[in-house]
Amino acid sequence: MAMKHYEPGKPYHRPGQKKRKKNLRPLLALLALLVVLGLAVGLVFAWLNRHKAQVPEDVAPIVTEAPAAPTATPEPTAEPTPEPTAEPLTFSWDTTGEEGNPYLIAVNRTTQTVTVYEKDEEGNYTVPFKSMICSTGRDTPEGFFHTSNQYDWRALVGGVYGQYATRISPTDGILFHSVPYYSAEKDQLETEEFNKLGTPASLGCVRLQIEDCKWIYDECPSGSPVVIYDGDESTDPLGNPGFTPIDPNSPNAGWDPTDPDPANPWNS
Fold first, then answer.
1. Which residues make Cβ contacts (< 8 Å) with residue 226, sequence separation at least 6?
2. Contact (Cβ atoms closer than 8 angstroms) between residue 189 and residue 255
3. Is there a domain that residue 29 lies in?
4. Does some domain include residue 202?
5. Distance CA 202, CA 50 (A)
6. At 100, is the secondary structure helix, strand, or coil?
7. Sign of dihedral through CA atoms 23, 25, 31, 34?
8. 116 found inside a domain
9. Taking CA 208 as the corner, what is the angle to CA 146 and CA 204, rounded to the nearest 5 degrees?
10. pTM (global) more than 0.90
């Protein structure tokens, strides 16, 4: 094969150069077609965006509301259980056969009050006559009783003594009596115990001031009805009369101020 020589002034072409240019033409044509298609697609989308349907400003858009959720049925509220209302305390005692006894003695352990009732026109113990302050105790029984034996002085548990004692029967040693004395002497009163009147302070007997236990001793014969119960202030129609405490430093402290004895220094 004869070698061609380059001639000055003429373009130099390497062998096969024209063939490679011919092979690039289809590729360039494809690229051009893709560019055109891309531009066309872009124009189409731009036209669609410009001509998209608009809702006029003076027309409210139609809003489709979602269906409301069903309202839950509220559970019924439980009604509070009303507190039971306490019925008024009423007391009635069967006093059939109580002929000859002018008084009934009612002892309220809650209020430490003794109320004496006398009979009404029908013979029932309904008329309040007298009230007294007292001191009962842990063994004071509840129930219906009668008075029985009486004592000017009575030895009590603990080596002490009670004045104007009236037994409450049938019980195991329960009596109406004075506040205890250290000995069977009127000037030996336990002043500290006297000042506990109005509170539960006895072992079971019903303690009273001298003027009150002496009144029962004098006015309530054997067989007089006695009721011991738990009530409230509404069952004390005459209320609780209270008492005057004794000053322990008083020279008269050994005497019950209500004792009617002429020798009582409180009476001078």
1. 104, 105, 106, 107, 144, 145, 146, 147, 168
2. yes
3. no
4. yes
5. 109
6. coil
7. negative
8. yes
9. 60
10. no
CATH number at residue 110: 2.40.440.10
Q: Are strands 206-208 and 175-178 parallel, antiparallel or unpaired?
A: parallel
Instruction: Enumerate the active-site residues.
Output: 177, 205
Number of structural domains the chain divides into: 1
**Domain range spanning residue 163?**
103-236
pLDDT tens across the length of the chain (268 residues): 444 444 555 554 555 544 445 566 777 777 777 777 777 777 766 666 665 544 333 333 444 444 555 566 656 555 555 554 434 444 566 676 677 799 999 999 999 999 999 999 988 999 999 999 999 999 999 999 999 999 999 999 999 999 999 999 998 899 999 999 999 999 999 999 999 999 999 999 999 999 999 999 999 999 999 999 999 999 999 999 999 999 999 999 999 999 999 999 999 8
